[in-house]
Amino acid sequence: MKPTLQVQVFEEGTGPLPEPASPLARVKPARSDEYFRWLTAGCALVLPLIMFAIGLALLYYSVPALRKFGVGFFFTEEWNPVTQEFGALSSIYGTLMSTLLAMLLAVPLSLAIAIFLVELAPPRLSRTVGTMIELLAAIPSIIYGMWGMFVFAPIMASTLQPWLTAYVGWIPGLGAFFQGPPMGLGMLTAGLILGFMVLPFTCAITRDVFQMVPPVVKESAYGLGATTWEVTCKVTLPYGLVGIIGAFFLGLGRALGETMAVTFVIGNAHKINLGLFYPGNSIASCMANEFAEATELIYISSLICLGLVLFVITYLVQVGSQMMLRRMYRAWSVGL
Amino acid sequence: MRPMKPRSPRPRKTLNLVVNLWAVASAAIGIMALFWITITVLIRGWQALNLDFFTRMPTPPGVEGGGLLTAMVGTLVLTLIATLAAVPLGLLGGIFLAEFGQESKVADNSRFAANVLMGMPSIIVGVFAYALLVLTLGNFSGYAGAFALFVIMLPIIIRTTEDMLRLVPNTLREAALALGFPRWKVTLFIVFRAARSGLLTGVLLAVARVSGETAPLLFTALNSPFHRFFSWNLGLNEPYPNLTVTIFDYAMSPYPDWQGKAWGASLVITVGILVLTIFARWLFRERKA
């Protein structure tokens, strides 16, 4: 039998190894320490408790709506506070559609910006631009909404929408999306604003993932004569794929529940239109607009039921992204 | 055997050039769009700012003049209450995750919940506060608004506290324990002191995050042109004036004067948050250096 050679690779530049658990964990603690431990554990347990309570509260207050409308609530477009008929379909459609548009914009842009920051830009420029993008993530969403309504929507109405109708609208199939009144407010505007809004988040994480790829691996590829693009798509992307997908899931979660930026520009109509220029609404915008005015129990209950839908969707997205990111970190702490 | 023909590198080089140009172009587009937003806020907001804006009360609809003093104070009060509640709880929770729980089941659950809550849309938190405090108490109130902000802050503070405490080397803990300190003293007086600026950074970032939140206040604190800041409970049992919902209301109104004020308020909030964020980051970098 041939002896197998085992080589352990210690990676350089993959970040500090986690500190081992304190060796003193086994020493019998003092009485005061026991109390302190229980106190802190209680505080830490507040979070799972809150998460559970949110789900429970939403479920409890959705019951009247679910009892009255049944499963049909999720498949009805009708939303009429006067006749007390409520259905969630248009809001769910609007949430998914605006998020899809946002991700169509944010994914390629943030990948390209990450390539620019990590591979192309000189270090000083890269650092400056990177910091600025991180700062932009701190700007509250209502600012994006203001900008969308007062600055971007008029430009949409006067330039982009007529142009799209004229040059893309006639293509069979695809053209159906670019129809509608060129008012500036509508699904497309909401999707674009949302895209710019999640861009700083996805971009910052994608850049981090790109940067965490060990330089040795990239340099060997460059040494073999690979071009920047080849290094990116054959080394960096496969290496950080899980992390990048996790980053986009995080951005997706943010886009799904983003409220103010969308409420300003989506137009607020409970209608499903294939044309992206028509006004629509999303779960979050519907709640933001109508919650404070809702007085009847069934109205409030329907709105809270919308919230429940959003809660479940974002919960699943979050769990997905957590799993991806955790898998990435686990894989990386082992090495290649 | 015939020798292999060398392939021309030109297609590869061209593709690379195209991709590089695309990367530079989209970086320019993305960054310009984001700057466009900030500069718009700066210019339009600046035009709306004057002394009255900071010192006067809001006017009734359609009446020009006045300012947003109450709204600014209201936002400060709500944020302060949320911070006062979230900081002790968050620090203690973070201690458990970093010092006691580590890989235990409780800590894992708590960490998972923190991550989920950090990604939870803030409007859902608003609905939660509404169901918990508005439906039961019967009216919109500052309490509900502060509670919603507290729920948003807590997971951020817990997670940053954990990360910052983990950066403190174990040798420090061991040295203190060897001198006979109980663990709670080690944690509160030695590990905390070592991680001080990091902890402050976490708190400041959390404050920056919640002070711009609108969605959770829309149907909890609502908004109000009036104030009762001088009563014993700061008027928290009523709809509470605050800056972000004021921006929303004023921007949606048909009055140009109000829309201008909304831009002014946007500028105030943006600058406030950016200053807080930059200060927090600077603080953390100082410590690392």
Percent strand of chain A equals under 5%
Main sheet attributes: strand count, strand direction, barrel closure of chain B: none
Number of distinct beta strands of chain B: 0
Widest sheet, order of strands of chain A: 1-2
Arithmetic mean pLDDT of chain A: 84
The oligomeric state of the chains shown is: heterodimer
- Overall number of strands of chain A: 2
Instruction: Indicate the radius of gyration of chain A in whole angstroms.
Output: 25 Å
Question: Distance between the terminal alpha carbons of chain A, to the nearest Å?
Answer: 27 Å
Structural class of chain B: mainly alpha
Q: How large a portion of the residues of chain B is in β-strands, by DSSP E? A: under 5%
* Biggest beta sheet summary of chain A: 2 strands, antiparallel
Structural class of chain A: mainly alpha
Uncertain runs of chain A are 7-15
Number of helices of chain B: 11
Order of helices and strands of chain B, N to C? HHHHHHHHHHH
Integer average pLDDT of chain B: 89
Largest interface: A-B, 96 and 97 residues
Keyword list:
heterodimer, A: 336 residues, mainly alpha, two-stranded antiparallel sheet, 10 helices, flat, B: 289 residues, 11 helices, 74% helix
Can you walk me through this structure?
- The complex is a heterodimer of chains A (336) and B (289).
- Chain A is an all-alpha fold and 336 residues long.
- Chain A has ten helices and two strands, in the order H-E-E-H-H-H-H-H-H-H-H-H.
- In chain A, strands 1-2 form a two-stranded antiparallel ribbon.
- In chain A, strand 1 (79-80) and strand 2 (85-86) form a beta hairpin.
- In chain A, helix 5 (187-212) packs across helix 7 and helix 7 packs antiparallel against helix 10 (297-334).
- Chain B has 289 residues and is mainly α.
- In chain B, helix 6 runs antiparallel to helix 9 (196-211).
- The mean pLDDT of chain B is 89.
